Structure formats: C-alpha cells, structure tokens
Amino acid sequence: MNYKLNYILPVLLCLMMGCNSKKRDGEAQQSTLIFPKGEKVTNNNFTGTVYLHTMVEGDSLNTNSVGNVTFEPGARSKWHSHPAGQILMVTDGVGYYQEEGKTKMILHKGDVIKCQPNVAHWHGASADTAFVQVAITGREKGPTVWMEAVTDSIYLSKENNKPGI
Ligand code: MN
C-alpha cells in the first residue's frame, strides 16, 4: 500500500501542477506569440536555430518585406547589411543588436531599431533567452549582403544599454 502511494502521489501532484506542460526557460511561450513562428531557417546565414514566418512580400510599389523571426537562445544572424536599411521591432524575449565598430546593445520587448543602409550589423537572441523580432526590410536597393559569422567572443562581449549607442 505504502509502496503504491509513494509512486502514485508524486505522479498525481505532477499532473495537477502541470509538470507536463512546463517548457524550457529560454523558449518563447506560445501564449505570448503575436505572429506565427513559421518554419525553421535552413540557409547558411544564421548560427543556431532560427524560425522565419514571412508576413509580407515586397512588390514594385512597396518593396518592404516583413518577417517574424524567432531566434532560439544563442542563435544569431551572421554579419550583414541591408542596401535600403531595416527596421526591427522586438515582440518578445531578450536579444542583441550590434553595428560594426559599436558596442553590442541588449534588446527587450517593445524596443525598435532602425538599421541604416549599408551598415554592417548582426542581431539575435541572448545566450539563455529566446528572442522574437519583426523585421521590415526594404528591397528597392537590392538584397541583403551577407558576411562572416559572429564569433563567440563578439557574441558574448559586454553590452551597453545606454540609448543612442
Ligand atoms: Mn539586419
């Protein structure tokens, strides 16, 4: 009898407390998602696991493409630049943004970044928390220019939270 209770009680408690639905701390919670997570990115432009849902495809009249990008913890883009610039709007999690020659910035939900045209930069999740951004990218001046991967030493460099950096 005692043996059975010792086994059954923890299982019952676990089910009552929702142990099965508990997610990893760094994972973006489904309830907070605004736009669909999309499909896993399979190209070589990112380090780690990244998902993309394309919401708007640019056309000849409005060239902006709009994508919802989810970076799992540790994931980031390679260095790159956008010939017509880019706007990033953070919708969830904790992430980083860094322009060449500047200090890495830490980003939170509600932050907005305007990347100037042809300025090399990278963006991605923090090491232990996922990051979700809406990216609006002008295409009228040509496609994104991709460069080298962001090394671990740059990725883990000290951030600066002062505005305007
Ligand atoms: Mn970018």
What can you tell me about this protein's structure?
It is a single chain. This protein is mainly beta and 165 residues long. It has helices at residues 2-16, 152-155, and strands at 39-40, 46-47, 50-56, 65-71, 76-77, 80-81, 86-99, 105-108, 112-115, 121-125, 131-137, 145-146. It has one domain: Jelly Rolls, CATH 2.60.120. It contains 2 helices and 12 strands. Strands 1, 3, 4, 7, 8, 9, 10 and 11 form an 8-stranded antiparallel sheet that branches. The radius of gyration is 20 Å and the shape is globular.
List keywords for this structure.
165 residues, mainly beta, Jelly Rolls, 8-stranded antiparallel beta sheet, binds manganese (II) ion
Task: Provide the fold topology.
Layout: H1 2-16, E1 39-40, E2 46-47, E3 50-56, E4 65-71, E5 76-77, E6 80-81, E7 86-99, E8 105-108, E9 112-115, E10 121-125, E11 131-137, E12 145-146, H2 152-155
Antiparallel strand pairs: 1-3, 2-5, 3-4, 4-11, 6-12, 7-8, 7-9, 7-10, 7-11
Bound ligand species = manganese (II) ion
Strand count, sense and barrel status of the largest sheet are: 8 strands, antiparallel
Q: In the residues, how many domains can be counted?
A: 1
Order of helices and strands: HEEEEEEEEEEEEH
Report the radius of gyration as a whole number of Å.
20 Å
What helical percentage do the residues reach? 10-25%
* SS field, number of helical segments: 2
Q: What is the subunit arrangement here?
A: single chain
- Judged by helices, strands and strand pairing, the structural class is mainly beta
- So what's the CATH class? Mainly Beta
Report low-confidence residues grouped into runs of 5 or more.
19-23
Characterize the overall form. globular
CATH architecture: Sandwich
Q: Tell me the fraction of residues in β-strands, as a range.
A: 35-45%
| CATH homologous superfamily title | Jelly Rolls
CATH fold type:
Jelly Rolls
